[in-house]
Every structure is written in structure tokens, then in C-alpha cells.
Fold this sequence. Notes:
alpha/beta, Rossmann fold, seven-stranded antiparallel sheet, 21 helices, binds fructose -6-phosphate
Amino acid sequence: MCGIVGYIGQRDAYPIIIKGLQRLEYRGYDSAGIFLYDGETMHLSKTKGKVEDLKHKSETSIDISGKLGLGHTRWATHGIPNDINSHPHSSNSGDLVIIHNGIIENYESIKKALQERGYVFESDTDTEVLVNLIEEVKQKEQVKLGKAVQIALNQVVGAYAIAVFDRTKPDEIVVAKLGSPLAIGIGDNEYFVASDASPFIEFTNNAVYLEDEEMAIIRLGKEIKLRKIKDDAIAYPTIQELQLNIEEIEKGGYDHFMLKEIYEQPRAILDTYRGRLRVNQGIIKMAGIDQNLEKFLNANRIIIVACGTSWHAGLVAEYTFEDLARVPVEVEYASEFRYRNPVITDKDVLIAISQSGETADTLAAIKMAKEKGAFVFGVCNVVGSSIARETHAGAYTHAGPEIGVASTKAFTTQITILTMIALKLAKEKGIFSESRFHALLTELEGIPAKVEKVLESNVLIEQIAEVYKDSTNCLYLGRGYNFPVALEGALKLKEISYIHAEGYPAAEMKHGPIALIDEQMPVVVIATRKGHYEKVISNIQEIKSRHGKIIAVVTEGDEMVTELADHVIEVPETTEALTPLLTTIPLQLLSYHIALMRGCNVDQPRNLAKSVTVE
Ligand code: F6R
């Protein structure tokens, strides 16, 4: 859950590393560090805080010249965020320097053994143990850095993407990967290393993504050498042409990535169904489903695994698959599922949902389900990510890079994909008439324009935010398809504004949460005309009688809820199964504005990271 960047070439490494770290800050941002080598001297600068703090410290305390560098932005696992625990870490001799994303699980026993042999440690990190283990192997076995890294990695248990520099071999960087992502950018007599391609996208479109258990020796003036960590076999790099463009990873005039990504949703949803939703032909084309249709049609059930917001998208899909396609669905937290010894058979289809495609628990759940014989389908946003590679088949959401730590467009595009799958299965099973199917496709095609319409409420939502920005608690209620939206709304508020928020099925309120309601308590109720409308109105009455404040998301032209609620936000009418694509948007904007008014860091909320690569 950290970001790593490295450079070796003809340019000054410092600006490349700093800019790269800023782009990778979504992966962790509690401390940062940089290492530079100018051909003679090694310079190291590390600090608690953000990359901006590192920039300030480095520019005032070290020589920032050098054509080789390594940088790291951290999400603490072993040891609190402070200057000493920040990466890069050096070996005892001072010759080796390492950056690491991941966790070395058996670091304590290795550390103890190294201490007994005279090694001393400054930090509390597992990474400092690894660099000293590499050093010991190198000295004891009298081998070069690459071999030493390989031998050392065969002694560790855990996950890593590492880059290592050796002062005695200053024209090379050795990198290795297991479980955490690592991309190598190939330029003209220069190489880049990073957790994803964003740090080098303006320099090269050619990249190699290391596979698990691969390492590479990157030497200036030479082709990269890839080998397997386990058995030393030579591996051959596949150079991929990157599709990313620089505008996609910049804020494009918005104050925050989160706001930009909220506003990108009409385009993102359209990109998700583009080429797949063929309304005129009355079909949905999705290669991953088309090629495995029998698996889906013959499945006993569909199990959906995911974490966080992606899990909420899975919950929406539970309604869609059962309601439209009549397939039994179970939705599981990946972290619970993987350790529960679940009953899985080869008649099960498992759908794993993940924006990043790197979430450790989701990845582990996939591996387990595969071992037990299930067919595994991935819904990911990041192309080429670990989950995309690990699954038997899948569909990308094509939402474009999501950089704000709070997930927004990933959620709506995941729902779009999952709805298309449900519609397709319903059609194949003959559940729908042609005309109903056609009407649903047309409705889905019209969703981006309706999302645009919802976005027009931004100013109104900002005004509502002003009223409730100092609340300490907030309740979110929804029923049916909009129950998961209530959960998602509450998650958005708590994660970026630090206000305690709970999402509940509206009817469940009277079994406990109702005790919380008083005149201080804002209650966000999703009360669209389709789906349990009258019942939700009864729930609103129950809140009103206890003086709770009601912010209602309603269908355009609504009268009944409007009369009862303190504030209403209208969304256009749509078919019930598609309402989450519209009702989610005001909740995203509400949490954005509240967080901003409370002075919170919207794009980088405390303690969080975008890519959760630790379990
Ligand atoms: C919340 C959020 C997280 C992620 C979760 C899963 O806004 O972003 O809850 O949804 O960490 O991440 P992915 O989808 O990358 O597997």
C-alpha cells in the first residue's frame, strides 16, 4: 500500500521522482523519502508527512542532483509514520538502498538472526530487515546484487515490490515483485520503475509489468534482464504499449480529483457500455461473458466477493441478478470469505469486483475459489492489474484512472457492468420479452444524460452541506436497490469528513438506530418513486415524529416526500434497477462538500490508501 518510483538515465532524477511520488500518493501518504546518486555521493532525505513536505525538506537539506534515484510514499504497516521508518532504507554498510511496497511477514525471526550476527537496526520496519538480509547474502556468498536479492527473497515470506541500489554497482537497479504491482518504463537509454505507469507516462509509452515471482536487473545501456525468483529461469519481457494519457491523471481544472471523478461519471458510464450495449441490434456484447455463457447459465449460484465500495456495488448486483436474471447470489466481504472455509463447487461462478485490481483480500479469495474449482470472473478498472490477470475471464469498467481515494466513478461503472451482465443473462434465459429487453437497454443508454442532470444540483447540495457540516452523526436509509446506496453514502461521508455515519435498510431503523434520532440528527433518505415508495414514506414519518432532520433524494416532481422532508434533491425518473446510478451522485457530492467545509483533505483522507495491498 505504498508507492515506489525509480529512475536511471540521462535526466535529473529528482523532478521525475518527486512528480512520480505525487501521482502515487493515492497509495499512501503518511511519510515519504527519496534517494539520489550523483555518480559519487549518495543523498537521502526522508520525512513524516506528504510528498510536498519531502520536497521542501530535500530542496533545503540535500544536493538534489543525480541521474539515478529511488522514491517512496508510505502507508505505514510496521512502525509508526516518522522520519526513521520512512523509506528508502539503507543496509548497515551503507552500500545498499531499498524501497519496498508490501509486507515481509517473517521479518522478526530474520531480524533476530541478523542481530545475533551483529546487524543493528534503526527503524521498526520489515524493509530494513530485508535490505540487511540482502547485504549479508551478498557478502557471505560473494555474489552480485541480483543474485543476492534472489537468494534473500527465497528466504522471506510475504509480499513485495522492491527496487534496490548498490553503490558498488552504480549503473543498475534490481527490482522484484510478489503480490504488489511493479511496472518498468522503457525509454531511450533510460528506465523508470513504479507501482503503476503514471510516474513515467510523459516519458514513454512502453512498459513491462513484472509478474509475481519475477525480478529484473535494469542496467543502463543494456536490455533489462528478467528471471524467475524461485528457480532462476530466464523470463522474457513482454513490452506493452500504454493507453494512459497525461490529462487523465491530472486534475483538469477541478479543485480535487474526487470532484473531477464525480463529474466524469456520465462519460465513465458511457465508456463502460460503449461497444457493448447495442440498442439498435437489441444485444449486449461482452466477450468475457459471451465466451463463458454456459458457465453462467449453468451456475448453481453466483458468489460476489469484494471490499468497501466495490462490495456495495456487489450488493446492488445481488438485487439486479436475482430480480432480473433470477440467479441466486451471495455477496461476501473478501476478507471474511477467504478465511471462512466456504463451500464452493465447480458449479459456482465467483465474480470479484475491484477498482484497483490489487486488493489483497479479494485476490486471495479469487485464488481460493479457483483452487476449489469455481469459475472466476473479474470486474476491474485497472487494466493489467493482478486481479484482472488472476481471473479466468472478466470485463473492465473503463472508468479511467480513479485517483481520489474515495471511490466514486468506480462504483457507478461497476454497477453498469454488473447490470449489463444481469440483463444479458436474463435475455439468454428467456426471462424478458424482446420489447422489455429493448426498453431496458434504451433506459441504460440514457443514464449518462440523467447523471448530467443530477450533477446540476451541485449548488443546492453545497447549501445543504453548509447546514449539516458540523453534525457529529448521520444516518442513511434506503430500501431495495437503494439500501446499498445508503451504505455507500454513509461510507463516503465517514471516510472523507470523519463524521460518524451509518447506512441502514430503512425498515430496519426501528430495530435500534431510531434511538439515535433527535433534532440534531440528519437522516439522508433515498425515497425515489420506484421501489417501496409508500413504505419509505412511513419511515420518514417515523423520523419526523422524533424531530430528525430529513434530507431526501426523490424522483423529479415528487410531492409527498417533498412535503415532509427538510431538504429534497431530485433525480430523474428511471427504472428501479437503475436508480442507484442516479441516487448515488447526490450522496457523493454531499460528502465532498461537507468534508471540504470541515477542512478535510478530500483526496487523501487520513489513514486510508487507494490500493489496499495488505490484508
Ligand atoms: C471507499 C473505497 C474503498 C475501496 C476498497 C476496495 O471509497 O475506495 O472502500 O472500495 O478498498 O478497493 P478496490 O475496489 O480497489 O478493490
